[in-house]
Amino acid sequence: MIRFAVTFMAFLAATCAAAEDKYVGYYYPEVTSEEVFDRVIRSGNAGSKAVRVDFVNVLTSSQLQAPSTPRFVFFAKGNNAETLVLTALDDDVFSSIYRARAVMAQLTVNVRQGGFFQQQQLQYVATFYDLLQLMQFDELMITDGETWTHRVDFIR
In the Cβ-directed half-sphere of 18, how many Cα atoms lie within 13 Å? Predict the structure, then answer.
């Protein structure tokens, strides 16, 4: 009886874990590391599905208009576009989590130059993660598209 209960609990745990992230194995590999981002620089309802989808569309359009081929791609997943996925398109750009974090730092520079953060007087403190937090993304999945995925959970 105990063996049955243990087997059932293991099956239930595996089923719940698989249900939690239906995109593993399709859009990115298993999560290999994660962090929590819980800083809130401004509270409010700045985020909605439409805002998040438009944000991804603007990022994608700017990448496609650039003279060079994009080295990574953004897309939103989930019923409310609450998961932002950032996937490398070559073997070098995210060859390590450290290179991926360097890209996040570069995106922070772009965010700080935008009108929104300057109007809010946040251009010296806000990061790319802060922007995602404001738009109410629940998570950011950063992946090399082959061997690793890093999850950033946004807690409000």
Answer: 7
